[in-house]
Amino acid sequence: MPIQLCFCSELYLFSDAQSQNGWIVQYPLQSICIMTGNSVDIPCWYQNPSKQKVYRTFWYRYKDWMPGDKDPKDLAYDPEYRDRVEYLGDKNHSCAFRIKQLKREDSDEYRFRFITYWDERYTVAPGVTLSVTGKLQLEGNSVILICRSNATASENNYKWYKKNGIHAHETKSSKTLIIKDIKPEHSGHYFCGIWSITSTEVYINVQYAPKNISVIAFPSVNLKERDSVTLTCGAKANPEVERYTWFKKNGEKIIELGTGNNYTITNITSKDSGPYYCSGENRHGTINSTYLSVNVQYAPREFSVSVSPSGGIMMGDSVTLTCSGDANPPAKSYQWFKDEILISPGVSGQNYTINNIKFEHNGRYKCNATNDIGSHFSPAVFIFVESMFTSF
């Protein structure tokens, strides 16, 4: 069922600059529709006669001004508002103000008031009408905007416009504008018109859960030990993502690492290699990113030489020595040594095979493994060749 969030103002034949006895107040937005819990900035500019000096200015709620009161209650001193209202104006004729943590009860017409040094008082009406709704303009819902006027006009005389920056384009000719299945691109300022008369604007702010979430790494996902890396999580959301959480997958386990838009690892080690992901959350939902794998590279380490066959070695046997260990990227070249002397350059693979082994092959063998990061020597193993003859 469509959600009726707010209505455009009735159409009148006046501009947004109101005046009284030479006192001019300009309200760029005379009608604002916004959701509870948000903050709203209400823009305003004023001009006073040159011979009259302003002593004090303030905002008040129209319905709070009781007959017989000299002045209405200043919002800045109203217990219901004083912790939520901030006057943004300055001495250059700005009278803007902000209301935070909006509640439904804040819906009202707000007016700006002058007090001069001669104790004269002026209020320029009408003011700004604020409509605070508890209904969310959520992606996928529907919105109804109704254009009201005291003019006699046919349905086709009503025009709806949406502003893109300072430009406006016509969207529909009708008294009622229905937007079904609203999307983020429907956000914006809308107003209606009849002939040359236009209404004030209504802002539609389409909210949605985080989407298009991704993780990037700086400077790279390919790192060396003792480097540093920063992972950054980003997502589109309205309202903005309230909480980012970081996770790392270790085998079948998921480990929560922390919160924040960025996650930094300093003095990185091989244990930090693996897939990472983040989640983004706002009041409307949570989304997880895909995995980003961090690859920590390091020189060969913990290499050793294994001998096959592993039992006694008889003269004439074939023996294979294998150099193996841990390296990232894998070792791409090997050197073999016997009794600290490099075996002929042609022997460079991970395996070294000695066919028809003889006594002169007795000795201590070790390997040196190398990758793009560095190299590493294994401990030596001793090869002892036994005679085929046994004495009685």
Uncertain stretches of 5 or more adjacent residues: 1-17
CATH topology heading of the largest domain:
Immunoglobulin-like
Whole-number mean pLDDT: 86
Number of domains: 3
Strand percentage, roughly? over 45%
Give the class from helix and strand content and strand pairing. mainly beta
CATH class of the largest domain: Mainly Beta
CATH superfamily of the largest domain: Immunoglobulins
Q: How does the major sheet shape up? A: 8 strands, mixed
> What CATH architecture of the largest domain would you give?
Sandwich
Terminal Cα separation, in Å? Answer: 105 Å
Helix content: under 10%
Number of helices: 0
Morphology call: elongated
Cα-based radius of gyration, to the nearest Å: 39 Å
What report would you give on this structure?
There is one protein chain. By secondary structure, the chain is mainly β. The protein folds into three domains: 206 residues, Immunoglobulin-like (Sandwich); 82 residues, Sandwich (Immunoglobulin-like); 87 residues, Immunoglobulin-like, CATH 2.60.40. Helices cover 0% and strands 51% of the residues. It contains no helices and 36 strands. The strands form nine sheets. Strands 20, 22, 23, 25, 26, 27, 29 and 32 form an eight-stranded mixed β-sheet that branches. Strands 3, 6, 9, 10 and 11 form a five-stranded mixed β-sheet that branches. Strand 9 and strand 10 form a beta hairpin. The chain is elongated. The relative contact order is 0.11. The N terminus is likely disordered. Pfam families: Ig_2, Ig_CD22. InterPro entries: Ig-like_dom, Ig-like_dom_sf, Ig-like_fold, Ig_CD22, Ig_sub, Ig_sub2. This is B-cell receptor CD22.
